[in-house]
Design brief:
Histidine-containing Protein, Chain: A, single chain, HPr-like
């Protein structure tokens, strides 16, 4: 069950990602989740510890930085994958 802390992280991550036009995909284990999907994040952030972030699009650099900062703020370990 997700904690309230996780809920806050999920909402903030999705809201931050939603500000960008780039595709922002979180890889957790063998699953790929659209970071703009609160439901996708909710089911993923509960069971996984290590995440990889894949970002593609016109504002990818800004999106990578902003989303990675939100993960770090909530103590979630994310690796931004350079494509």
């Amino acid at each position: 069950m997700a904690t309230n802390k996780n809920n806050q992280a999920i909402v903030e991550i999705a809201q931050t990602a939603g500000k960008f036009t780039s595709s922002i995909v979180l890889q957790a284990d063998s699953k790929y989740i659209d970071v703009k999907s609160i439901l996708g994040l909710f089911t993923t952030l509960v069971n996984t510890q290590d995440y990889q972030l894949h970002v593609h699009g016109p504002d990818a650099d800004e999106a990578k930085k902003a989303v990675a900062e939100v993960f770090a703020k909530h103590g979630l370990n994310v690796q931004v994958v350079a494509e």
